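My main concern about presentation is that the manuscript never shows what a single data entry looks like. For the editor and my fellow referees, an illustration may be useful. For illustration, here is how one protein appears when written out as sequence plus structure tokens:

***
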Amino acid sequence: MSLGTAARGLVPSARGLLRRASAGAPCRTYGAVAAARVVLEAELDSIRAAGTWKAERIITSKQGARINVDGSRGDILNFCANNYLGLSSHPDVVQAGIDALKSHGAGLSSVRFICGTQDLHKDLEQKLAQFHEREDCILYASCFDANAGLFEVLLGPDDAVLSDELNHASIIDGIRLCRAKRFRYKHMDLKDLEVQLKESQSSRMRLVVTDGVFSMDGDVAPLQGICDLAEQYGAMVFIDECHATGFLGARGRGTDELLGVMDRVQIVNSTLGKALGGAAGGYTVGPKPLIDLLRQRSRPYLFSNSLPPPVVGCAARAVELLLASNEIAQSMTAKTMRFRNNMTEAGFTISGSAHPISPVMLGDARLASMMADDMLKLGVYVVGFSFPVVPKGKARIRVQISAAHSDEDIDRCVDAFIQTGRKHGVVS
């Protein structure tokens, strides 16, 4: 028998040995996957049973006050987007994105410090610093990233951070990444904040952290009182302005302008993904040494690709429009109060204050979901919010008013709420 023949004869038996030797591993793997599937399906079933399942409706048009929704006929009034100024589909903003795509490409395939910084990025950072009247600006892929990248760089183990208990999840996660001592004060409670400031006086640096506007209730942080306390106890102030930039304040600069404390708030984080065109991206504005340090050490900035040129182009044009005129921002107040007043008159409970976020409080998660579905049948797109997005027992439909809504749109939304509310026994 030749050597080749003998070798070929050994192959089948060797394969059999290998199969037997490795048979246990795949079985164990399949068993682990099957067990995990059981756990996951049980968790999903519990979400459905609690009435907190979040279905994703499919929009088949561009974002705007009127949209097309898969499975629904005709134009649907959209009352739940963060498109506060209606700039997501503004022709000038869209054209700026097209121009940037043609001139600077679809993306950079790089982080900023390697080969991912274009003149577009520096121009937008300069415009945002000018808009907020701060020294400098750094761009991120999202405001979630901006919040994740700030506290770890700024604060060390000898420092302290004092955070409102209802701050956004991204702020909470960002604070968890830093080594500073953590103090949490009751929601918008200045007395409790002062208690925490007294307890943290041994710290090297202290930072009071709050949302400018709290997104679930539309309530505005008491920044004047916060700044007073911060100055009294030698602390700095940080605000997240995602639900304020572009439309709060006389010129749309945000909560700090609205409350007259622009020169008393040291650091501002905000987003390009809401009022400023709605595409994506976030940023930090503040003292230049801080921004310089973030460029050197902020992990989301160092390890994430640069914002795509079309996104940057759209956002830059949105900021230019706001720098040139405050007309769009000023139109928000009357529209917001028209909705809030008419809904209150109809018997609904609306949370928050004079902010375009107008939560219709319902309490029960299943009720909020069913009412939102019935509203869609009446041609109005809203979404029920329930746990874990909001606390248990505080489910609501969060309505958001846009500068793109007409008075007739707002009245039609209110009429749909009244009709649906009567059906479910919410109003008489």
